[in-house]
Structures are given as structure tokens and as C-alpha cells.
# Entry
Amino acid sequence: MNNDHLSKGQKAEDMAESFLRTKGLVTLEKNFRCKLGEIDLIMRDQEALVFVEVRLRTNPFFTNAAESVDKQKRRKIMNTASYYLQQKHLTDKVACRFDVIAIQHNSIRDSNWIINAFGV
# Structure
């Protein structure tokens, strides 16, 4: 990936994090990585642990941001989340959900927060 792409992705993640914080979520981790994959944001919403996938689409000719979280991507995120829970000794101790922030055209105003977008 080129630096411009990475820079846009980081900006989208920062916008998503700021937006979610205005909604009362608390940031626990950003860009959690392990051998299984990466989770953009891990946040707390009251008592729930929220794994957030941020997707940015600026080109209208490609699939929209929300649709880009396909079955393979969802499985990768769920496996990474499971690893995170095991590492933090939180398995079966907290409620979890998977949210997607789908950003179109580089603007949080053109975004869609999909709460509990997918799960096990």
C-alpha cells in the first residue's frame, strides 16, 4: 500500500474514533494487530466491548464502504477479536459486538455507523 492510501486510512480511523467518542464510547486500543489480523478500534460502550472496523471509500465506482466488509473480512475480525479476548483474559467475561463505520467521500457526514453489524 502506498503512503497516501495509509494516510487516508489513518485519517478515516481518527474521524471514526472522534465520532464514536461523541456518542459516549471510550477508546481502549487503536490498531490492535496480531498474526491473525488487525482491528481498527477497540472501544467500550457502557459494559460492552466494541470491535470497530473502519472502512473508507472515495471512489464511487467501487463497492460502497459497508459492502466491502465481506464474509472473509468478518471472519478475520472475529478471529482477531477472539485472540484479543484470550490475551486479555476476557473470554466469557464481557459482552462484545462488532460495529462498522462506513465512510464515503472522506467525510464523517457521509458515514454510516452500523451497530452490531455482524457476529457469531
About this structure: Helices lie at 3-22, 71-87. The radius of gyration is 14 Å. Strands lie at 26-34, 37-45, 48-57, 95-104, 111-118. The mean pLDDT is 88.
